[in-house]
Amino acid sequence: MHAAEKSGLLNEKGGRIGGRVSAALVRQAKRQTGIETDTDLIEFALATVALEDNFADAFKESRAQVDPKLKLGF
Are 41 and 33 in contact (CB under 8 A)? Predict the structure, then answer.
């Protein structure tokens, strides 16, 4: 959440979101994260997606190969 705040994603809180989700899903997500409110949970989930580093896509694009010149430390 610090990264989301630092990047300016949390500056304005005028938007609203609504939808129907499984109560069990919400309970489990709150247990996993320790987040207590629905608003904070939604904000956390959206920030997680917004700040995704796309590592898997970059790795696939590299065809799972590492540059032979890269020093890996062993």
Answer: yes
